[in-house]
Design goal:
With 193 residues, the chain is an alpha+beta fold. 23% of the residues lie in helices and 46% in strands. A hairpin with a 2-residue loop joins strand 4 and strand 5.
């Protein structure tokens, strides 16, 4: 798998009613082996706070523009997540908005009626940890394998530079560097299968 230096920085707008707050999400991921997954479980168990396990099922939809969206099912909750992708100085910067969906069946009927069709599905089993204000996930993504994903959400652009430095430091703590970062979104990886 080809890797290139990349960290994601995206403004995140989150609400279940209407977008109100913009935050910036700094994120990177590394493809790892199953033995590394097991090693990281042990290491994280010693230094980080375990937050729980989850199963996330995402359905990505076809969209000819650079704006794309997905529906995420996480337990009994469903979310519509819309992203507008962009690249700034070699770093991905995406606007992200998220809303809760009360009736997924009705929402899917609406999408079908207006001609929007599912393109790719992603199933991700996650073990979540927290360390120094960062969310750390050990993920198994069906059809893709194991990943270490680290992210932090900040409230101001002035905090991005420090968050990126700290993100790199945490990756180094677990034996990875920026050259190991996966430069593609999960969606892009799944489309190549």
């Amino acid at each position: 798998m080809s890797r290139a230096p990349c960290a994601v920085v995206r403004p995140r707008v989150t609400s279940h009613e209407s977008p109100r707050t913009i935050m910036y999400e700094i994120e990177a991921k590394v493809a790892i082996s199953k033995p590394d997954f097991k090693r990281l479980q042990k290491e994280l168990g010693k230094v980080a706070k375990f937050k729980g396990k989850s199963l996330k099922k995402d359905t990505y939809y076809d969209n000819p523009k650079k704006v794309f969206f997905r529906i995420r099912n996480e337990g009994r909750k469903n979310y519509l997540i819309i992203k507008e992708k962009g690249i700034e100085k070699g770093v991905e910067a995406n606007l992200e908005m998220e809303w809760g969906i009360k009736d997924l069946n009705k929402f899917n009927k609406l999408l079908k009626k207006i001609g929007i069709k599912p393109a790719v599905q992603k199933t991700k089993k996650t073990e979540a940890y927290q360390l120094n204000g960062f969310n750390i996930e050990l993920n198994y993504v069906a059809k893709l394998g194991y990943f270490l994903e680290i992210e932090k959400v900040v409230n101001a652009k002035t905090q991005i530079k420090k968050a990126k430095k700290d993100l790199l430091d945490i990756f180094r703590q677990f034996g990875y560097s920026q050259k190991d970062f996966e430069k593609k979104y999960y969606l892009e990886l799944l489309q190549k299968i």
